[in-house]
Amino acid sequence: MTLATTHSVGVTEKPPLRLRLQQKGFDGVTLLVLPAVIFVLALFVYPFLYGLVLSFQPKEGGWLANYSKFFSDRFLYGTIMTTFRLAVPVTIFNIALSVPVAMRMRLMRRQKVLTTILVLPITLGTVLVAQGLLSYLGPQGWLNRTLLAAHLISHPIALLHNYWGVFLSLVITGFPFTFLLMLSYVTGIDGSLENAAATLGASAAQRFRAIFVPLLIPGLAITFCLSFVQAVSVFPSAVLLGAPAGPTRVISIAAYEAAFEQYDYSLASAIAMIMALVQLAIVAIVLAARGLFYRGPAGSGKG
Amino acid sequence: MTIASRDFRELRLDGVSRGFGALNALKDVTLTIQRGEFITLLGPSGCGKSTALNCVAGLLPLTGGSIWLDDRRLDQLRPEDRGFGMVFQNYALFPHMNVRKNVGFGLAMRNESKADIDRKVEDALNVVRLSAQGGKLPGQLSGGQQQRVAIARAIVIEPPLVLMDEPLSNLDAKLRLEMRAEIRRIHQYLGSATIYVTHDQDEALSLADRIVVLRDGTIRQVGTPAELYSRPAHADVAEFMGYRNIIRTEANPGSNGWVNVGIGGAEIAGTPLEGVQRGRAIAAIRPEDLSPVGNGPIVARVETAEYRGRDFYGTARTEDGTELYFRSEQNAAVGEVLHLGADPARVLVYADTAASRPAELAPNGIAA
């Protein structure tokens, strides 16, 4: 209908704005993106920029005072290492656990049931998991009592309020996420490739090394980034299950203390910015490393 | 440890069976393949031909029977220990390796020296005429080129047996013809025994030394292309080999060893098979053998006609409603009445038994 009108008006005249926009890919449907844009602007971009500006307006000193304070105080800059010491092993552990499970699952028929069971912890939330672990792993918890009763240990093992408490909780809450991602990457690798490698004489280990791993690397990189970022932002379990004053004093705790114990929002913002930068740096490094490997489709070509 | 040697006399499938739960995909298949022979497994989809191939390759364990290479039992070996070359329907090229690496993969797994691998890979790429593409990734190649890489990868290990699973089904018609000739040429050049799975009878006829027709997991007939083309052993095989006129009828003994069968109200002479002389029977005639002749006994009205360059193919219906596929050298106009006839040697008459009833003639199908 619109076209007919345009023709009757004549060729020399410019087509109406609506048509011109349409040709560039803007039409009524484009408006549907507005809520998301507003959401991102209001809840992400604005707070981020606000925090960035705030971090350069310290309570005292020059505009970089917060940053120099952070990097001169071991109690503060040490939190980066502490965070890494938790997030990196947890991420690697989760991936290392996911890959074999996913590889086995891809051959199974009742995938859905097992996937549901494995993914269930994701619905629980960190605090509930922490609560459960507190009663399960405590000195009087089932685990220690069982081990004591079986005379496997003579004293309760300390799994709470230290590094391992946080580690375990991060594994439990992080594994489903890591696993789901890995499962989709693993099942994306065409099974006939493995068959082809087998008929060419490759043993199971050789098939894994020569076919599976190279095709999985892009997926591993992405999964590592996402799982890592999730683990870095650990806060509840570090407080509830860890030792927030010592071995599990992660960077988010430092930010929390600055904001709500010292009421120094400016310093807290600076710490948050540093946290974001550190995460970005890791993600950038991992993705850059991924670029060194094959990144194409994991199928077997056309067909 | 692999059996990478072409020096064998025969590969023997002995009562090979494979079930999937309650379904028997392969039932008691016994077959001997001679050194250097090109065998095609031919059958409609679901007949068990790919299952058979995967069983030989070791990708599917047997549920019964055994497989022997001369006096070595193979069916207990893992696929990597059998040393057969396999070409997959979707090519299954390793997407992260270039063409040379793909082709050399089997040699690398055999721990051959770098120099040997390079030389053999170059030779194999020459055979499939892809020497110039060695450095490319599979994703940068056309479908036909990918298929040739897959073939090179399978033959470079000099396997005693090459297995091909519908390797041409993903190619367009023109490329398929070219690749068919290519496969024939490579086989003649290398001389390795080949099992080739296809559902395309033209492919089977043009490539095979012997064709194995499978249906519902059992072997229906084994024979040379000429035997299968002109003398299918059973009505269902005939249907699959291009005998499009499959007519349920009555047989009566005729003169000179022929039998007479009724088709569309007319009586014509045919060749008795399966010892049929009298009673319920199935007549099978290729469309190209049923043509208008001066005194043709079958009277039928043309319903469709299509031009095929040198001649016309069409369908015609007789007075009693039997639909016939025919060939004509003259233009056949729709509605025209033809007098069709066929050489008795080309009219095959089979017993009408449940076991060999073609799919088209379901138990309650076309009336006799």
Automatic annotation (TrEMBL), chain A:
Keywords: Cell membrane, Membrane, Transmembrane, Transmembrane helix, Transport. PROSITE patterns: ABC_TM1. It is a multi-pass membrane protein. GO terms for biological process: transmembrane transport. The lineage of its organism: Bacteria, Pseudomonadati, Pseudomonadota, Alphaproteobacteria, Hyphomicrobiales. Belongs to the binding-protein-dependent transport system permease family. CysTW subfamily. This is Carbohydrate ABC transporter membrane protein 1, CUT1 family. Residues 80-286 form the ABC transmembrane type-1 domain. The chain crosses the membrane at residues 28-55, 75-101, 113-137, 163-187, 208-232, 270-293. Its main location: membrane.
TrEMBL record, chain B:
One of its GO terms (molecular function) is ATP binding. It is a peripheral membrane protein. GO terms for cellular component: ATP-binding cassette (ABC) transporter complex. InterPro entries: AAA+_ATPase, ABC_SmlMolc_Importer, ABC_transporter-like_ATP-bd, ABC_transporter-like_CS, Mo/tungstate-bd_C_term_dom, P-loop_NTPase, Transp-assoc_OB_typ2. It is found in: Cell inner membrane. Residues 11-241 form the ABC transporter domain. The keyword Nucleotide-binding applies. PANTHER family: SPERMIDINE/PUTRESCINE IMPORT ATP-BINDING PROTEIN POTA, SPERMIDINE_PUTRESCINE IMPORT ATP-BINDING PROTEIN POTA. This is Carbohydrate ABC transporter ATP-binding protein, CUT1 family.
